[in-house]
Queue: 4 jobs
Job 1
Amino acid sequence: MTAEAPSLRTRLQTVFAGNRTLFGRACQAFIQALIVLSIVAFTVETLPDLPPDVRSNLHRFEVFVIIVFTIEYLLRLWLSERRLAFIFSFHGLIDLLVILPFYLQLGLDLRSLRILWLFRLFRLFKLVRYVDAAKRIGDAFRLVRVDLAVFGIGALFVFYLAAVGIYFFERDAQPDTFASVFHSFWWALATLTTVGYGDVYPVTVGGKIFTFFTLMIGLGVFAVPTGLITMAIVSTREATLKDDAS
């Protein structure tokens, strides 16, 4: 007896798995290249003195890209065992946001809504599905999400204390710049992130000393989550290697 031939659905699932067949890997490479080229085309479109024929060709390429992405989205939706879960998943929402603005503009005059034009940048997030490194980073964030949440609350606490502290030291010397704690939030943000734009800075001795300690704390604010994420990525990588070895 001959083995039963796989159904169309099964064959397509194998193709979308990507790493099982040569044709599947070729399809994934094609989609990745299309994402990158569409971002390049999006960037070229912003040139002010672009010839009309070039702009017309870019529009044709945009239509082609949307058609391919639409077919991909519909196929993934059809192949999904839980279609509603796919629609509201991260990848499902990204795929939908990439193609939806194009179709909305066909029926409505939405050219004034520039946000729809910016939705094309969501194509960059489509690469997450095809890049193994991005998947490992996502796994790492999920691994330390509780620690990051706790640290985030602590960082907000430090951010507020920094704004209150600089307001206390500088409110009399710079009543316009540090008129309230709310006005001091910008200084706290720029200082804790160690950016220091220079547009708002202390002039009193107490304010300068307080700024020094705030800067030291700001270095730690970024060092702690960076260390957490780095350890999580290493742990995820080691787990992947063990799975591959077994």
Job 2
Amino acid sequence: MTRPRAASERFVAQLPTRIRSRVQVIYSPILEIRPLSVQVDTAGVRGLIFTSANAVNAAASLDVARDLPAFCVGPVTTGTAKGAGWNAQMVGATAEELVAFLLKDRPDSPLLHLRGEYSRGNIAERLTESGLTTREQPVYQQHLLPLTSEATVAAGGETPIIAPLFSPRTARHFADIWVGSAPLWLAAISDATAESLYSMDYVRLKITKAPTPKKMRKAVKKLVKHAMRVEGDEATD
């Protein structure tokens, strides 16, 4: 698992027991979330936009005003925002759905998108260009990490490795740092995430039909089943 530890553990816990029992989970976060020491000015702001739980946690640590409505992507981000004290509403499972909702619903503005230093989608720019004034501010950074020693040893073995990748940036980094002979089975949460993986030597690359945790779990389940079947066939040759 390449996500930050808490997110990885949450993802694994939501996999079916029969899948977890068939694999050895190796936690090797290649991305570390670090809140930024910044001042968040909410003067005049009429609502917040959160597209990740990391942004919610960072905003909470910076004591951002809780009396503002929060428009969120996905159930995890929404639940985290509610737990932190915001009047949070899930307005889509993806950033595209969030933008579409806000442009249709037209809440009071200006809005403020609190995000990481590296972000895709140009949410604030697109909303502003469409007449819904939105500012943006990074509140956390995504620091890249090497593979752990356990993951490096596994990469040099013969047991199949199933690696879910959840963002284009982590996919690019994974492709850069992966050195190994183990059969590699990859799951990518989007076409953009998959782009950096095509140059790798892999057995199979599964791209989800929608960029959601549910679809990623489905992709991982399929990869586990296929990998086990291939291993079983080779064992009987």
Job 3
Amino acid sequence: MDLYLRATEFFDYDTPAVQAWLARQLEGLPEDPVTRIRALYLTVRDGIRYNPYVFHTDPATFKASHALAQGETYCIPKAVLLGAAARAIGIPSRLGLADVRNHLSSPKLIEWLRSDIFRMHGYIELYLNGRWVKATPAFNADLCHKMKVAPLAFDGVHDSLFQEYTEDGQAHMEYIADHGTFDDLPYAFIVSGVRAAYGHLFPPEGESRQPASASLEQDLAQR
């Protein structure tokens, strides 16, 4: 299990900023690991806003410390932040990657991506009570309310992967491909997968492809 507990370039829980943040989040909580990771899950889910438009190929943007400093990012760095927090308190963690179809994405985001399939969606697996449990802290509660889906809960016992249906029973998200789990963030694999899926977002040098919007929440507010 040592691989799933160590600090790495991306799971950088040994940095002063992450250590200070952890101390604040854990203050007053019991030593029980499930209680602690449930609290950290909620903090990552709701304290770091989900925004797919901020994706960048700079390796630094995939770090747990970067997600914490920016206060907004997308699914992969949010999963890494939760995984780094877990490792810091002695809970083994590993990153999971999959492709998903999101039925309720904004038209602007689909237009920007030219697809309703999200390549390299990230979640985290945590080793609790003798088994691996999946957790997905991607979508913050405010965004979920705008999308008319319940925020995704995590009890530390059961897998928590996605909101399959909206509050009125419409299809919301489905997993269509599984890329496996990793003891550290596979940077080259992620970037090559995203580049293959959305080649138009990787222009030749000297050109630029600006995001369709500033945030997904802004997209939804304008619908």
Job 4
Amino acid sequence: MTEQEQINKTMVFAKETLVNAEGGHDWFHTLRVYNNSLLIAKGEKTDVFVVSLGALLHDIADSKFHGGDETIGPKIAREFLFKINVDSAIIEHVIKIIENISFKGGNEAQKFSSPELYVVQDADRLDAMGAIGIARCFNYGGFKNRLIYNPDIKPNLNMTKEEYKVSTAPSINHFYEKLLRLKDKMNTKTGHAIALERHNYMLQFLDQFYKEWH
């Protein structure tokens, strides 16, 4: 089986697995991350095969929808990649990408690094920014029955990973706790350039939101 055939099988697997996923973490999110990963990879020295598999499987079982269990996604990905005969070293690299891609509150040191992780991570973070990011933020907030905004509940910028995972703060707080912080956490030049435009769009949205709120 060629690498392209393995990528094609992974795309089918991801699409089928995520068919009933929450709207901000569904197949279309994965597809956007995959497409942006390939775009960013053009300006980086990376293994595009690893990037492709990492992007397609990065949210195959997001822990926030599995009781916080961070082992399910890597397990599903490992079993699938083994099944389609991907080289064991590549499987391990993809698993490391899945395990380390998450924001996790933004205050913890990352335990693994590689050019391929940086590319997929940037692509994933870009999808949390701009118009798509705004839509995903409120979609997830509605999914979790969270308030849109409460001026009495201030953003917490110093959350631990555990606090971040169980936070029930209003959706607007998420802009300050994560979304507006992503611009300065981009790994690649291409990612940063795209992030800057999306960051500015979110600032414009917040300005308009507060005007209407008051």
